[in-house]
Amino acid sequence: MAEMGHEVFICTSPSVTSSTCIQNKFDWVERYLGKEWKHKIVLTKDKTVVNGDILIDDKPRVDGVDGRPSWEHVLYDQPYNRWLKMVKRITWGNWKEVLL
Fold this sequence. Notes:
- By secondary structure, the chain is α/β, with parallel strands linked by helices.
- Helix content is 18%, strand content 17%.
- The protein has 2 helices and 5 strands; from the N terminus they run βαββββα.
- It has helices spanning 21-33, 95-99, and strands at 10-12, 41-43, 54-57, 72-76, 89-90.
- The strands form 2 sheets. It has a 3-stranded parallel beta sheet, with no helix packed on it.
- Helix 1 (21-33) links the parallel strand 1 (10-12) and strand 2.
- The longest helix is centred in the N-terminal third of the chain and has 13 residues, at 21-33.
C-alpha cells in the first residue's frame, strides 16, 4: 500500500473492559507486522474523528461524533458482514484493485 503512495496507519478501538487490550494490540502488531509498525498505531474509541482518505474496517457501521468523516469506508470482507451490500469491499486478494 505504501508503494502505491498511501500513508498507512492502523486505527484501532481498544476495549474498555479489558485491562490488557491495548498492550495486546501493540504486541500483535509487533509480532505480525514488525516493530516499526507500532509507531503507526492510532488508538481511538471514535474513528470518525481520525482524518484520512480511506478507512478499511470489518465493522459494517462506524459511528461517532462526526457524521461525515473525512474518509471513505471500505468494508473488509468477513462472513459476518456479507449481508451488507456496499460499493467497496476489500480482501487480501483484491486490495490493490480496490485502492487504485
